[in-house]
Amino acid sequence: MSTSENVRAYFNQNAFRWDTLRKEYFPDTLREVILSKAYLRPEMVVADIGGGTGFVTLGLATRVKQVHLVEPSSAMLEIAKKNLSAFTNIIYHQTGVENLPFPEESLDAIFANMVLHHLPDPEQGIKEMVRVLRPGGRLILTDLDNHSYTWFKEEMADVWLGFDRQEIRKWFEQTGLVNVLVTDTKDSCCTKETCQCSCESSSKEVQISIFLATGTRKYISMEKVTEAYSDIAIMERPCCAPSSETGNSSCCCTKPQAFSISADYAEEDLIQVPEDLWQNSLGCGNPTAFARLQPGMTVLDIGSGRGLDVLLATQKVGKEGRIIGIDPSPEMLKKAQQIAEKYQLANVEFRQGEAEEIPLPDETVDVILSNCVVNLSEDKSKAFREAFRVLKSGGRLNISDIVLSTSLPMEIQLDETGWVSCISGSLPEQEYLDLLQQAGFSEIAIEKKVPAGQIAGTEIFSLTLTATKP
Predict the structure, then answer these.
(1) Whether the predicted model's global pTM rises above the 0.85 cut
(2) CA dist., res. 40 & res. 140, Å (int)
(3) Residue 355: DSSP 8-state
(4) What is the pLDDT of residues 71-89, one digit of tens each?
(5) d(Cα 109, Cα 414) in Å, to the nearest integer?
(6) How many other CB atoms are there within 10 angstroms of residue 52's CB atom?
(7) How do residues 10-68 score in pLDDT, each as one tens digit?
(8) Residues 311, 277: contact at Cβ < 8 Å?
(9) Where are the alpha helices (DSSP H) in 180-329?
(10) Closest Cα to residue 75, out of 25, 20, 14?
């Protein structure tokens, strides 16, 4: 997997003019796209792999504590040191991707811009980058889409003619990355307007789209979250139970003091709801209020808990409708089933299952509800794909969940108590919406957004949204 001598020679020979060539190959706007999907924090230590003369490093150095610039070409590295001489928080390493000079699980984020197509074994290169990522760390990679211009191999020392995005997704997921997002940057390599001076002739003017792929290294098991909620289920009255005066409950029991959110059920919603049920709700919104449920619909509640949203949905779909609640906790399911039997809810069914593996066939549900649950799933990308799979065409997803203005400090992300508190597993709002869109959903609309406090400079919101399967 070593960086080939051909690649090293190309960059050593072109280092003195690379800053000019680079502007012709891809624009400065690409760097801003990369940084916008990184959700950086000032305390982070990151690496720019194959950093060249410092294109991405320049944007990183002003945003994080420390940047490691890794570059196999000695000539490129010397130019980078001159370009970035004003910064004191950059460490330079002359080496390739094959053996990164960092311990396992030591970096908060890794960037690799236009590196993969120069590697003999790109899949192994991704594995090596993931190796040095901390749990919760993020890999941000940009490269070329598949193309057929074989002269790139001869003139620019490319080993691969771009990549299929689904193959990139597969490689990311196989290395244990979650919340994998592979999207279009809306930038291109070597546009028609600028490539004439770098291409041999006008017949070689090309425009190749550039993709961006991000993923996060796994850092908690769903079993631990389920165990915590099983403990909550067997409590007579959870510590986060709602006030008898307002009928509102907070998302979770062990929430940080700065975090406060209510489930937002209107008084008229709870008139026909048993007190023992709404007293033990763990929601952070009211997705049924925006679900436009109709008689006869089949509704799925992901993370149904003790069944409050299930009961609210039965009042809308009537006896001819059907409600399915899934929850990973056997104790929660037992409580929900007892309530369903007590109130003779004949059209209600509860099953054990998770958002990431919904125990239903394809295209069987009209509407999906979920109330403060997706944040507990480590792989939101997979959860949204599963929701899309089981919805009928034209079906709707209605979610209330916790989202963030940006990323949280790593120590909070890794805190198990914070996960159970609906905080540590929450994503930045834009990333949450990007993953929904990638899953195939359209007409994504934010119905309600309520501030819920602030932790370490990150704003917290309860977000209720709807989305449609075309």
Answers:
(1) yes
(2) 11
(3) T
(4) 999 999 999 999 999 999 9
(5) 15
(6) 24
(7) 999 999 999 999 988 888 999 999 999 999 999 999 999 999 999 999 999 999 999 99
(8) yes
(9) 222-233, 275-278, 308-317
(10) 14
